[in-house]
Amino acid sequence: MIFYLANYAIDLLMLLIFITSLMSWFNPDPHHPVVKFLHALVDPLLHPLRTILPSNLGMDFSPMLALLVLWFLQTLLQRGLAS
Questions:
Q1: 31: which DSSP letter?
Q2: Per-residue pLDDT of the chain (83 residues; tens, 9 = 90+)
Q3: d(CA 5, CA 1)
Q4: Helix 62-82 vs helix 2-26: angle between axes, to the nearest 10 degrees?
């Protein structure tokens, strides 16, 4: 049961990262409660990655790296369930 909850939590995090990445294309109002809520959930995960990745490329690759890491963790969880 814990594996299933962790799997769903990773799915939700991946969806939220994807949504915040799409929102950045449209430049939403940063003071909107929904935008604040989404950033409060996603930014603690992305901030450490932003400090590691170079910022002089003009693009923020931290969401893509976070999605890859979460996908890898989800794969490990699913393999743990299979065995």
A1: T
A2: 778 898 899 999 999 999 999 998 898 999 999 999 999 999 999 999 988 888 777 788 899 999 999 999 999 888 877 66
A3: 6
A4: 160
Residue that the structure tokens 């999605």 belong to: 67
Among candidates 60, 21, 61, which has minimal Cα distance to 38? 21
What distance in Å separates the CA atoms of residue 80 and residue 83, rounded to the nearest whole number? 5
* Whether pTM exceeds 0.90: no
Residue whose C-alpha is closest to residue 17's, from 68, 56, 55: 68
H, E, C per residue of 34-76: HHHHHHHHHHHHHHHHHHHCCCCCCCCCHHHHHHHHHHHHHHH
Phi, psi of 50, deg, nearest 5: -65, -30
Cβ(4)–Cβ(46) under 8 Å? Answer: no
